[in-house]
Amino acid sequence: MATYAGPVQDLIDELGRMPGVGPKSAQRIAFHLLKLPKEDAVRLARVIVEAKEKVAWCERCFNLSEGPLCGICADDRRDAHTICVVEEPKDLVAVEKTGEYRGKYHVLQGAISPIEGIGPDQLRVKELLTRLDPEGVTEVILCTNPNIEGEATAMYLGRLLTPLGIKTTRIASGLPVGGDLEYADELTLGRALEGRRDI
Ligand code: ZN
Q1: Residue 22 Cα, ligand 1 centroid: separation in angstroms?
Q2: Which of 37, 42, 100, 173 keeps 20 to 30 A from 155, CA to CA?
Q3: Is 158 left (phi over 0), alpha (psi -120 to 50) or beta?
Q4: What one-character-per-residue DSSP string does 17-56 give?
C-alpha cells in the first residue's frame, strides 16, 4: 500500500490500530477526516481527549465510571449478594435495559481467546475473586456472550467458583448462538437471565 507524507501517514497508522479497522478503512477514514471542516475535526479531537480525561474504570467492577466507583456500585439499593459477570460495559448496558436485574456487576474487559492470546490473566478475574468474601456474594451469574470465547470464559469461571461454594449460574440458551449480548433484544435477554441454570 502506498505511503503518504508524514502527518497523513501518521493519521492512517493511528486509525489502523483501532479494532476492526483494516488498512483500507483507515485510509478511507483518514481522507474523510481531512475533508471535514476544521471545526468538525477539532470537535472530534476534543471529545476524545475529554472522554480520556473524565472517564476511567470503576475500581470495584471495572465498568466505565467518572469517579472511583460507578453509579451501580455506589447504589446501596442494589442487591450486593449477586454479581452478574459480563465481558464489556456494553453488555452491562444490555442487561440493564432488560430491567430484570437488580444486583451488581463485574466487567471482565474481554473474554478468553487463545487465538488472540487472551487468557484469564489478561481479564479482571483476580479482581472478581477478591470481591466475593468482602461483599458477601452468594450468586455469580455468568453473562458472557453466547459464542466460543464467551462459553470458554463461562466454563473457566464456573470451574473456579463452584468449589468456593458460590452458586454459579449461566444465562439460559435461547440467545442467538455465536451472537453478541448487545444484539439480543431486551425480552430475549431478560428471559435468558430469568431462566439461568446452575453450572
Ligand atoms: Zn462499579
Answers
A1: 33
A2: 100
A3: alpha
A4: TSTT--HHHHHHHHHHHHHS-HHHHHHHHHHHHHHHHH-E
Alpha helices in the chain (DSSP H): 6-16, 23-35, 38-54, 89-98, 125-132, 148-161, 186-194
More confident residue, 44 or 185: 44
Digit-coded pLDDT (tens) for 19-72: 889 999 999 999 999 999 999 999 999 999 999 998 899 999 999 999 999 999
Instruction: DSSP letter for 117, please.
Output: T
Cα distance between residue 132 and residue 61, in whole Å: 12
CA of 47 to the centre of ligand 1 (A): 23
Backbone phi and psi for residue 137, each to the nearest 5 degrees, phi listed first: -75, 130
DSSP 119: -
Helix (H) or strand (E) holding 164: none
pLDDT interval class at 101 (50, 70, 90): very high
Q: Note residues around ion ligand 1 (Cβ under 5 angstroms).
A: 58, 60-61, 63, 70, 73
For residues 129, 134, 140 and 145, what is the CA-based torsion angle, rounded to 10 degrees? Answer: -50
- pLDDT above 80 for 180: no
Contact 192, 175 (CB under 8 A): yes
